[in-house]
Design brief:
Blueprint: H1 5-8, H2 12-19, E1 35-38, E2 41-45, H3 58-71, H4 86-99, E3 103-107, H5 110-121, E4 127-131, H6 136-144, E5 148-152, H7 157-167, E6 173-178, H8 190-199, E7 203-207, H9 222-225, E8 234-238, E9 248-252, H10 254-263, H11 265-268, H12 275-290, H13 293-312, E10 323-329, H14 331-343, E11 346-347, E12 349-351, E13 361-366, H15 373-389
């Protein structure tokens, strides 16, 4: 049983449970709106990606129920064979139109979207260049490809330029960046990256998992925010954030989509999105387009929350979005802070290495459009109390 020795020797989680500060796999027993029931207690939810607050929207739930009545609960096969429904094609057409692209392609999860796109496009003798803080799905997509992966320092355009100069113009290369970095809430330096990709003839792919529905006048993400939509070749998005569902998609030109459809192993060999999840996406997209005030409210809450934390003396790093980290540095201090907040009814997400750089442990907080000022004031007051007790702020 040599293979399982590492399992027997893994004791960190058990020790954390015994000591009472294990923060993961908490059981949520209700809908995740501005509040949620966790471990039997009502809490202010500051650990959700439900940015527009659509998971309990009546129209979204109605669409989900109706899809089950018409199409049943699942497709029982891959898109490649028996798993393509009229709902899938409708969603792809709607998303392509929304993103102002020729075509779009659905995947069963956001994680698979990056795996399936990067591994299909980057072949032997080609290169994929990523930011060192890109999401794990991008990292694993690079591993699955037959190309070589190169990484540039986080948000460091000169370092990206160094790599691109070394590769030369005749080499096949894909640059992949997060639009919004999910732990620190900062934006990719897209204007500089776009210019470098043009100069060095690299294809640019932006992971807009945390940007769609959030950034841009119409919620189309990072490229719209920077007025660079026609300069980004491939946009990736997920449905588990603003779209209140599960799955993902890419949007780009028709020929690239057609190639990926016939070469992406994670697409071809996975069951397709269930009817209910696709219907949820379509309903959420309707609301995004019809209720822009939700995005306005989200940004109002984000500014209020970030400013409140900063006024109390907390370090919120380079956050520019509704993701607002509270940087504490030390792992154990972060777990202690998380536990004290949790005990007082505030749900946050602790992040330590390797999710963040060593010595940069933080509490990841995120606001949603349906938080009230009372929710945020209660959370700020609790942060102040805990910060004082743990001597993080004075």
């Amino acid at each position: 049983m040599k293979l399982l020795e590492k399992c027997r020797n893994f004791t960190e989680a058990a020790i954390a449970r015994e000591q009472g500060w294990y923060p993961y796999f908490k059981v949520v027993e209700s809908q995740q709106g501005p509040e949620a029931t966790v471990d039997g207690r009502q809490m202010v939810m500051l650990g959700s990606n439900n940015y527009l607050g659509l998971t309990d929207h009546p129209k979204v739930k109605e669409a989900t129920i109706n899809a089950v009545k018409v199409f049943g609960t699942g497709c029982t096969g891959s898109r490649y064979l028996n798993g393509t429904l009229s709902l899938h094609e409708e969603a792809e057409l709607r998303l392509a139109k929304f993103m102002q692209r020729d075509s779009a392609l659905l995947f069963s999860t956001g994680y698979q979207t990056n795996l399936g796109t990067i591994s299909a496009l980057v072949g032997k003798g080609e290169f994929v260049i990523t930011d060192r803080q890109d999401h794990a799905s991008i990292v694993d997509g690079c591993r699955l490809s037959f190309g070589k992966t190169l990484k540039f320092r986080h948000n460091d355009a000169p370092d990206l330029e160094r790599i691109l100069q070394h590769l030369g113009p005749d080499t096949g290369k894909l640059v992949v960046v997060d639009g919004v970095f999910s732990m620190e809430g900062s934006l990719a330096r897209l204007p500089e990256i776009v210019q470098l990709c043009k100069t060095h003839q690299a294809v640019l792919m932006v992971d807009d998992a945390h940007s769609l529905g959030v950034l841009g006048d119409n919620g189309r993400g990072t490229a719209e925010h920077f007025a660079l939509e026609h300069s980004v070749d491939i946009v990736m998005g997920t449905f588990s954030k603003s779209f209140a569902s599960m799955g993902g998609f890419i949007a780009t030109d028709l020929q690239t989509i057609d190639y990926i459809k016939h070469h992406s192993r994670p697409l071809i060999f996975s069951a397709s999105m269930a009817p209910a999840t696709v219907a949820t996406v379509l309903a959420a997209l309707d609301i995004m387009e019809q209720e822009p005030e939700r995005r306005e409210r989200l940004w109002h809450n984000a500014e209020y929350w970030r400013h409140g934390l900063q006024e109390l003396g907390f370090n919120t790093g380079h956050s520019e979005t509704p993701i607002v980290p509270v940087i504490l540095g030390e792992d154990m201090l972060t777990f202690q802070f998380w536990k004290a907040l949790f005990d007082q009814g505030i749900f946050t997400n602790p992040a330590v290495s390797p999710a963040v750089a060593p010595g940069s442990a933080l509490l990841r907080t995120s606001v949603i459009a349906t938080h009230t000022q009372a929710h945020l004031d209660r959370a700020l007051d609790t942060f102040w109390q805990v910060g004082q007790a743990l001597q993080v702020i004075s």
